[in-house]
């Protein structure tokens, strides 16, 4: 995901990247902001480690790579940004959890597949 915050006080509310077991296990954020001054421009990523009273503020400085667990252990938010702020986010997926999440999505409550048909190479559709 490529994110561009246009400034003007834009940010992102406190959230967890993977609250429901969708397969994302590590969040990787790479910052692209040259000459960033968080005191003036804001845009700090604030992480609230689960079970802690403290929080960690990470400035979105150029060429900084940040990695953290994507689940409920690390709720986070982007503080208001007063200049255009760029970041690239990539998630590392756990294959088993991702497969279970897809199966859960594609099945109904009683385990019946909804509208899913396997493709048969010997049959024209």
What do these coordinates show?
It is an enzyme of class 1 (oxidoreductase). One of its GO terms (biological process) is cellular response to hypoxia. One of its GO terms (molecular function) is hypoxia-inducible factor-proline dioxygenase activity. There is one protein chain. With 125 residues, the protein is mainly beta. Helices cover 13% and strands 35% of the residues. It has helices at residues 38-41, 95-106; strands at 2-5, 10-15, 24-31, 45-47, 56-58, 65-69, 76-81, 85-93. Strands 1-8-3-6 form a 4-stranded antiparallel beta sheet. A 4-stranded antiparallel beta sheet has the order 2-7-4-5, with no helix packed on it. β4 (45-47) and β5 form a beta hairpin. The protein is elongated and about 50 Å long.
Order of helices and strands: EEEHEEEEEH
Q: In total, how many beta strands? A: 8
Which consecutive residue ranges, at least 5 long each, have pLDDT under 50? 109-125
Task: Assign a percent range to the helix content.
Answer: 10-25%
CATH superfamily: q2cbj1_9rhob like domain
Number of contiguous helices: 2
Average pLDDT: 88
Shape: elongated
What's the gyration radius in Å? 19 Å
CATH top-level class: Mainly Beta
Alpha carbon gap, first and last residue: 34 Å
The appropriate CATH architecture is: Sandwich
Structural class: mainly beta
- The fraction of residues in strands falls at 35-45%
Strand order of the largest sheet: 1-8-3-6
Q: What's the structural domain tally? A: 1
Q: Biggest β-sheet: count, sense, barrel?
A: 4 strands, antiparallel
The CATH topology comes to Jelly Rolls
